[in-house]
Design brief:
This protein is an all-alpha fold and 334 residues long. The chain has helices spanning 2-17, 23-30, 34-47, 51-74, 82-87, 97-106, 109-127, 131-150, 161-181, 187-237, 247-250, 266-279, 286-294, 323-327; strands spanning 241-243, 257-259, 299-301. The chain contains 14 helices and 3 strands.
Length: 334
């Protein structure tokens, strides 16, 4: 979110005094989501006359990212981290993946907020008066559209947050002139505009306020689930285990942990994708059993809801209670 706001603010500074911000170089090195926004921002700078600098920054960013991909390939991995490939379905799927992302965005509140912000920015790009502001509007709308088509809008409000912040900032910048001039028309008009802006901001930010209030409960859920799984693995099993939610189980664990969801295992990710394509949905069973047996893993700890069946050849030992998580209204997998 800080990187996205930094790039947008940098474009605003350039529109005012033609000075270029250093955010454009660092942002994509923090998160891959920044690539679309960075590319569009460099396009704005090129159109604004910064030809050499925009090209040099683009080449530098591309060289650094390609060098990292070369490093990954050199150690036997894919061109992108497995965690990215496991979550960004458009990178490993064809045809309907982008359409599914768009439909998913249209089915949730924050996705609709992104679409609304993109339309607001597009309106200024088409009908705005100042060329430099219209370019920033194109940049913002394009970045939001890229996230809607390629990114995620479901996941405890952590994936789309940067895009919402970007859209709100750019919208306020584009339409800030009329808002600032409203007080001259009288205090009643000024109060009305301020109220409208406040309501819009609250509507966009309310889900994040709800999540903020749920942090203690969500943290307790981590303690009740992932931390207890970590204790089982490190204090009792003291051997290799397989899980579908890596994080805490692998933390300070000297033994191998197989990630069945594929965030840290290329083999598991490819096997799961193949099973999904074959069955038309998330599928477990044979492929999980094969991976577990190949690595000599004695214990598997998974969320059954994430898989249709458990690893083949396994024997159920127990089930963690999830009553408290459900009662709090927080996703047990969070």
């Amino acid at each position: 979110m800080l990187c996205a706001v930094g790039i947008a603010a940098g474009l605003m500074v350039e529109a005012r005094d033609r000075r270029i911000s250093g955010w454009l170089v660092t942002a994509p090195l923090v998160r891959y989501e920044m690539l679309a926004l960075t590319g569009l921002a460099l396009g704005v700078l090129f159109v604004r006359g910064h030809h050499l600098k925009s090209v040099l920054v683009g080449v530098l960013v591309a060289a650094l990212l390609l060098a990292y991909s070369a490093f990954l390939i050199g150690i036997g991995l894919d061109y992108l981290p497995s965690s990215i490939l496991a979550k960004a379905r458009v990178l490993e799927s064809t045809g309907t993946a982008t359409l599914r992302n768009i439909l998913e965005a249209l089915s949730v509140r924050q996705g609709l907020a992104l679409v609304s912000l993109a339309l607001v920015l597009t309106a200024y790009a088409l009908f705005g008066a100042r060329t430099e502001k219209r370019l920033i509007a194109v940049c913002g709308a394009g970045a939001l559209a890229a996230h809607i088509a390629l990114g995620k809008t479901i996941g405890y409000h952590r994936y789309e947050l940067y895009a919402v912040a970007l859209g709100m900032l750019v919208a306020l910048y584009l339409y800030g002139g009329p808002i600032r001039r409203r007080p001259e028309a009288g205090w009643l008009s000024a109060v009305g505009v301020a109220g409208l802006v406040s309501v819009a901001g609250l509507a966009l930010g309310f889900p994040y306020l709800v999540v903020l209030g749920q942090i203690p409960t969500a943290s307790n859920n981590i303690y009740s689930q992932q931390y207890q799984m970590h204790r089982v693995a490190t204090a009792y099993v003291r051997d290799r285990v397989a899980v579908n939610d890596l994080g805490y189980v692998a933390f300070e664990n000297e033994h191998y942990v197989l990630d069945l969801w594929g965030l840290s295992s290329r083999e598991a990710r490819l096997a799961r994708r193949a099973a999904e394509r074959a069955s038309g949905g998330i599928s477990g069973g044979a492929w999980m059993g094969d991976l577990v047996r190949e690595r000599g893993i004695p214990l598997v700890m998974v969320y059954e809801a994430w898989f249709q069946v458990v690893p083949g050849g396994s024997c159920g030992l127990g089930q963690a209670r999830r009553t408290a998580a459900r009662r709090a209204g927080v996703d047990p997998g969070s």
